[in-house]
Amino acid sequence: MAVLQYLINGLSIGSIYAIIALGYTMVYGIAKMLNFAHGDVIMVGAYISYCVMIYLKMPPVVAILAAIVVCTVLGVLIEALAYRPLRGTSSLAVLITAIGVSYFLQNAAQLIWGVAQKTYSSVVTMESVHLFDGKILITGEVIVTIITSAVVMVCLTLFTSKTRTGKAMRAVSEDRDAAQLMGINVNRTIAVTFAIGSALAAIAGVLLCSASPALKPTTGSMPGIRAFTAAVFGGIGSVPGAMLGGILLGVIEELCKGLISTQFSDAIVFGVLIIVLLVKPTGLLGKQIQEKV
Amino acid sequence: MKKLFAFVMAVMMVVGLFAGCGGDAGGNASDKGDAIRIGLSGPFTGDNAVYGNAVKWGMEVAVEEINAKGGVQIHFMSEDDVSDNEKAGTAYATLMDNNMQIFAGAVTTGPCLTLAPKTVTDNIFMMTPSGSNEDIPKAGDNVFQMCFTDPNQGAASAELINSQKMGTKIGVLYDSTTDYSNGIKKSFENAASELQMEIAAVTSFDANTTDYKTQLQQLQSAECDIVFMPIYAAQAVTVLTNANEMGYKPVFLGCDGMDGVLTQENFDTSLAEGLIMMTPYAADNDDPANVAFVEKYKEKSGGEAPNQFAADGYDVIYAIYEGCVAKGITGKTSNADTCAALKEYFATATFNGLTGTNMTWDETGMVSKVPTAVEVQNGTYVSK
Q1: Residues 6 or more apart from A263 whose CB is under 8 A from it?
Q2: Could you tell me if residue B7 is inside a domain?
Q3: Nearest alpha carbon to residue B290 among B308, B274, B275, B278
Q4: Cα B376 to Cα B91: distance, rounded to the nearest angstrom
């Protein structure tokens, strides 16, 4: 019975990784850059929703909307100020800038909200579900997170395949120069990508802190890195891959902790990652892209 | 091109030379007057910033009080080490460049273990307010502690469980990535085996853990009715929240790092009801000295009540101050003489502070502070 509970815990953590990984994969797929500041945008989203809920005493719905708006604006600003001037330079320069932005956000948050940890109140009011005479527990947060990440995944897939902007994104992703020649505004398309990615980060922040209530300036960085790993695991650039990678990573992690060893779980998780990448270098659902010679 | 490079290098070297001179001149005792230069290295940013800032603010309150009195003056300086061993080396070097005379750090265990040997080499007197690992004072006879040590706490916790018959099946939950948690866990296990107490389950988490349900599930499956967790308050908040969601209600027992759990912003303190922890200090103590400290501390912290880290920091400054007054140390005394005089002083000194009365130090530099257990009842600490 304990195994089933570990599995559910894994799903719970995995679905949070999944929703963060969706943001990573989206930005990578289209802008071809690793936005390491993504985890910190999550943290900002969590803080904004916390402030609206606790200090302004607004209902959670307002808090979530406020977080989405602030993060979207923040994401577009980061892209315009930090990444756009570097477009066309080496990808290493952009990567280092992203790490810089990440530190900037963490330290700014520390200045604004202080260093002491805050305890987040869950936005989920749904009752927990007890199965098998209370032996198995599924919290409301788990159910809401899984449903949200599934809905987000479907919406993103539909958006990129059906809408005009979504098609422009895919065009930019495939060949930036050619897309520009065809009259697609590359800068605007990438800005929209960042806006969507950051809005997702806000939702992820709210869900992450609802499930584990410790809110501090470094809250987003560790889950961010895990989710990035999940995105690579599932095949970076692939939307369903991010979802699959996140959930698998969470489940493997919790099963290792529960059944083998809490101390070796990371070694095992990353061992699995290495094996998967050796066998399938593009990740589980990643597409093999032929380099033109 | 080569010539230009050589020229630039030459200019930089000359500037470096002058900068060196400037530093020396600035550090002359005459320049800073008679003020005793005390340095602190601690995490003021990053995950452990809450401890570093508590110590710093506590020390600043003490320094301001002492300087306002007239007489011996203190020049206090602090450097951020982010609780990182490597950065602690840089922070310490910066303090030494600024002519630090006495080292009142570091705050967390890792940097303390890194820096203690350096103070031995440099012959600098060191007293850590909060580094509780037993190996810290063993680095040299110039290294002292203000907080009680990890073995102390681990052993006291085991004895407490044994004497009060708190539970039949003991579980241990610890953080495998900190020296602090590992140290206490080890001493708890040793004491438990001496007392022939059986530990039913041991589980751990690491710095990356955000959810503790799996670990709690392991303890619950082993039917532990008392859980010893030598961890910091920041993680305890999530542990207690997770346990509540699971409907798992053992007795939770923590150590000094658990202190501050009640002051976590927006934390539902009813979740901590019945939690037992080891602490030498309670902010709600109505001793006039403490009331004054709490008031001044809140001005610095933006309204947060002090925890034992703040009180330990405050006590360290006063202990050093009393030593300096007794031995006639001033800013003009050399580092070696300061160190020798303070070593001599603390060998026989008795100190009364916020965190205890009649404290003495043994030959290794450990303080004679007895861990006392408090239980959380109706949102406040009650002595156990």
Answers
A1: B176, B204, B206
A2: no
A3: B308
A4: 37
Residues of B in contact with A5 (CB under 8 A): 213, 217
**pLDDT tens-digit map of B248-288:** 889 999 888 887 787 777 888 888 888 888 887 877 777 88
B269: nearest Cα among B244, B305, B247: B244
- B221 and A CB contact within 8 Å: yes
* Helix, strand or coil, per DSSP, at residue A35: coil
Could you say which DSSP state residue B361 is in?
B
Over range A237-246, report the average pLDDT: 87
- Measure B179 CA to nearest chain A CA, in Å: 15
Q: How many helices (H) and strands (E) are present in chain B, helices listed first?
A: 12, 14
| Residue of chain B whose alpha carbon sits nearest to that of A135 | B246
**Based on the domain organization, do B88 and B123 belong to the same domain?**
yes
Between CA A31 and CA A213 the distance in angstroms is 32
CA distance linking residue A42 with residue A48, whole number of Å: 10
Which residues sit opposite A215 in a β-bridge?
Answer: A118
Our CA-based measurement puts residue B210 at a distance from the nearest CA of chain A, in whole angstroms, of 6
Would you state the structure tokens that stand for residue A293, as one six-digit string?
A: 């010679």
Taking contacts as CB-CB distances below 8 angstroms, the residues of chain A near B203 are 262
Are B155 and B45 part of one and the same domain? no
Strand (E) or helix (H) holding B3: helix B2-27
Q: Is residue B297 part of a domain?
A: no
Name the residue of chain A whose CA is nearest to B265's CA.
A118
Whether B127 and B167 map to the same domain: the answer is: no
ipTM value for the complex: 0.80
Please name the residue ranges forming H helices in B98-168: 109-122, 150-163
Which tens digits make up the pLDDT trace of B47-95?
A: 778 889 999 999 999 999 999 998 889 999 999 998 888 999 999 999 9
Chain A, 21-60: which have a CB under 8 Å from a chain B CB? 50, 54
* Shared domain check, B179 and B82: no
Contact residues on chain B for A50, CB-CB shorter than 8 A: 266
Backbone φ, ψ for residue A4 (5° rounding): -60, -40
**Do B156 and B141 fall into the same domain?**
no
* B92: containing domain: 35-147+308-349
Alpha helices in chain A (DSSP H): 2-31, 38-54, 60-78, 91-113, 140-162, 164-174, 176-181, 186-211, 221-234, 239-255, 265-279
B241 and B376 housed in the same domain: yes
Tally of structural domains, chain B: 2
What's the CATH number where B251 sits? Answer: 3.40.50.2300
Residues B129 and B159 in one domain: no
Q: Which residues contact B380 (CB under 8 A, 6 or more apart)?
A: B262, B284
Please tell me if residue B44 touches chain A, with a CB cutoff of 8 Å. yes
In a domain, B275, yes or no: yes
Among A139, A106, A134, residue whose Cα is nearest residue A123? A139
- B239 and B379 assigned to the same domain: yes
Residue A155 has a CB neighbour count (10 Å cut-off) of: 12
